[in-house]
User: Which sequence fits this backbone?
């Protein structure tokens, strides 16, 4: 009995992975295939970017304050910042697609001869790939600004000294056309990769939604949990790869 359950679970897991990678391959491949659905793309960029901006600013500011308190002198270098705002954007994607699935809107697209992956998934994935690096840059700047508040008003350090140490840390080793600090590379590559992970996971669970409104809630929860785990795992291996290619 136990072996049968394990076997069934393993089969479902392999089948789910197959479905996910097929979805990912189609969604990424459709980026270069007409029609491009530009209006849908810009709508999703607005939803992901502007829709997540508030929580990104809030978490970034207080993350910077905490880091400043812990380091006492200057911000510590960190590769993967808090992605809660992006995960919430991902859960929103899952909820939206899940609602369309349970209300048979996706079935209607199939009936009309429109590929739902091309129409619904690709614009959301592309929007996440574009907007998450932008959100990360904003988050990093707000975090540094929050650190300045702590350094100035709690630790009594002059703002000029704080910004001097920040730029010294950021530009340690120089910044030329032939050499870009590892922090900048990781800070731009990781959000790009994580944006793809979050959006693809969200779209996968959204399209797999069943069971009405209760199923939509389950899909959003699964999106956040799965994307969080994948980000932690991928972050480790991605850091190793980037450090081997661009050593400190």
Assistant:
């Amino acid at each position: 009995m136990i072996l049968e359950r394990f076997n069934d679970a393993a089969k479902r897991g392999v089948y789910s992975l197959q479905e996910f990678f097929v979805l990912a391959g189609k969604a990424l491949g459709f980026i270069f295939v007409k029609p491009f659905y530009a209006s849908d793309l810009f709508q999703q960029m607005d939803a992901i970017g502007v829709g997540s901006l508030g929580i990104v600013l809030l978490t970034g500011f207080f993350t910077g304050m905490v880091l400043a308190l812990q380091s006492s002198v200057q911000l510590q270098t960190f590769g993967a910042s808090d992605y809660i705002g992006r995960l919430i954007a991902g859960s929103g994607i899952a909820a939206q697609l899940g609602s369309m699935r349970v209300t048979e809107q996706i079935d209607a697209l199939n009936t009309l001869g429109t590929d739902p992956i091309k129409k619904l998934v690709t614009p959301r994935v592309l929007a996440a790939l574009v907007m998450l690096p932008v959100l990360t840059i904003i988050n990093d700047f707000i975090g540094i600004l929050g650190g300045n508040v702590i350094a100035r008003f709690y630790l009594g350090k002059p703002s000029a000294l704080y910004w001097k140490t920040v730029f010294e840390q950021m530009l340690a080793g120089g910044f030329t056309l032939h050499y870009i600090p590892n922090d900048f590379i990781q800070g731009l590559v990781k959000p790009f990769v994580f944006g793809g992970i979050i959006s693809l996971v969200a779209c996968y669970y959204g399209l797999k939604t069943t069971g009405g409104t209760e199923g939509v809630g389950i899909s959003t929860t699964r999106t956040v949990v799965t994307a969080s785990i994948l980000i932690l795992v991928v972050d480790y291996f991605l850091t190793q790869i980037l450090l081997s290619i661009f050593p400190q």
About this structure: Residues 72-85 have pLDDT under 50 and may be disordered.
